[in-house]
Design brief:
The protein is α+β, with helices and mostly antiparallel strands. 21% of the residues lie in helices and 29% in strands. It has a three-stranded antiparallel β-sheet with strand order 1-2-3, covered by helices on one side. The mean pLDDT is 91.
Length: 70
Amino acid sequence: MAFAPEEHARAVQLLQLWKAGKPDRHCLRCGAKALNISDVSARPHTEWYRFSCKQCGLHETLTIPLPSSQ
């Protein structure tokens, strides 16, 4: 199951905080303080971030295409 549109926007916000070293561990689905974000990117082509929550079973990936180097 993919992120719903409203979840996608929240996932991007959480990712920005995570990248800035200020992670918000509250799950965007259930609100539990059990969210984990991991970088599973295939650079230089795409950034992929896995969002998971032990509390509700969330397991989604946010994909961010990178610009072509050509």
